[in-house]
Specification:
Elements lengths: L10 E3 L17 H10 L20 E3 L14 H15 L6 E4 L3 E5 L5 H11 L13 E5 L9 H4 L8 E2 L7 E6 L13 E3 L27 E4 L4 E3 L5 E2 L7 E4 L8 E4 L1 H19 L5 H10 L5 H9 L2 H12 L6 H5 L5 E10 L2 E2 L16 E2 L3 E4 L4 H7 L3 E9 L14 H4 L3 E6 L6 H6 L30 E9 H6 L2 E7 L2 H4 L10 E10 L7 H19 L6 E3 L1
Parallel strand pairs: 1-2, 3-5, 5-7, 7-9
Antiparallel strand pairs: 4-6, 8-10, 10-11, 12-13, 14-22, 14-23, 15-16, 17-21, 18-20, 18-22, 19-21
Helix pairs in contact: 1-5, 2-3, 5-6, 7-8
Amino acid sequence: MIEPSLAPEDVQALVEDWQGDDHYPGQIGHGTPMAGLALHGDLTGPLADQSTPVLRHRLESVKFLPPTPRADDDPANYGAITQAAVASAEERQPERRRIVCSATTNDRRRGDRPTRWSAAIDEIAAGVDAAEGEEPPRRLFVQSIGNIGHDNDWSSIEDATRHAGEDPAQAWNALTIGGVTLKNEIDPHDQGAWFPCADVGELSPYSRTSCDWPNGTTPVKPELVFEAGNRAVSAFQDQVSDAMPSLSLVSTGKGGVGDALVPFHATSAATDQAARMAAQISAEHPDFWPETVRALMVHSARWTNPMMTEVTNASGMTGRSALRRKFGYGQPDLPRALASASNDLALFSQAFIQPYDRPDISRRDPNQRVGRITYGNAHYYDFPWPTQILEQLENCPVKLRITLSYFVEPYPLKGSMLDPARYRSFGLRFDLKRRRETEREFQSRFNSEMGDRSGVGEGDPDWDFGPKSVSAGSLHCDTWTGTAVELASRDQLAIYPVMGWWRDRPSQNRYLDKARYALVVTLEAPEAGVDLQAHVAATVDAMIAARVAAQTYVPIDVQT
């Protein structure tokens, strides 16, 4: 099940003597079931399917830690080791498009601040290894948040919020993965003696969180959760069982006869499935940037019923924002990421932006040849929603979901690690036009001369999280909820820059650099009873024709 999609020459090790085999003890292994999940997903269901699976992605493997630990493999060096592993694969097959997947974490270091390892992952994603004058080779890096270790005292591991995500899960540009479980049916042979630790739709008992990371300086992690299996506790709660087959995923094992299929669990399993989904999206849409693939995955995520109950019962924006650090934006859905139904309209944009500028202001000050560094221009998007139809729907509830994804270049010096504005090369945010705001008034809020943008976006209570919940990170997702008639007048979106070291450190001469981002916007109106897709298609055709004539707006593409 693996061999047709993993060529021998693509099984590498950083040191040849390590060899490329799965050295994990036992017949289950670790790399082998990871490979099976990355290719096929959880085999529990597909094993009963008689059809022939069709794969559009394949595997590469690079062993970057040796079978026997060495002094040279100190965690302080893991960043350089990880970069070398990615380079090793790219040097062998430079033409391939890749999703980088790692389920390795440092269980002796919390991820509550950037490290050399997490910064190295940010550099990998941002493509800082590009040659001068070359477009940086961005990469999607999928990283696990880490596992809660085994303990027979269930009370000591029961509360996931007390178990912090591990280094390098805090990497800003990484898509960090936690675990959820839909598995709670124990084999009849074990029923009575064992009980599942989590109910269906709850956080997997293996998954860590970022609930106790500081809000102001750390990104929201994990962004997504995938199936990671469940644990079982004994009837007397004096024993905890890991890897119970009926509560685990099924994947490929490294053993011989009788060990071809094995149970697998924890955030390694979840991370592999995330990498698989990213590969499927990339294969379906080869022109999508890594930033776009990440945005689509997060945009497609929804909270399970137990998660939604917690969100509903949370106290306002602050309470809801805190829950993202427990289970992120929820569990993603591949069909939702790839397509949109008639009542679920999705549009996206892949665009370049110049976050900062240094204009010539000699007309105002003859003695100063070059002005101070300012913000660059914001991007403005007109929504292609059929205004007349929305007005006719009046008080019908609608949801506007927005996801903004970009990769920052880190500045991993000691003084920058605790300040998001000094760690990131640039930052981006989004904001929605107010109901009674004119276009001129809306755009004036993002004047390039503005030095402090901390108040932009405030005073809008209809968001799930709101702008105050955004501090660190390079992926931002929020949902606005209101009525159709109100959305009809809120018909423009701004993407605008905030502070970063490209502006803060002019001596680096990066303040004129351009950045890029992916934007995904979804209008959901499940109760509308109207085929909005047909109306939007007509609106888009008219908008594109007008923009071609005027050439004053950033073009926007519609995914249908």
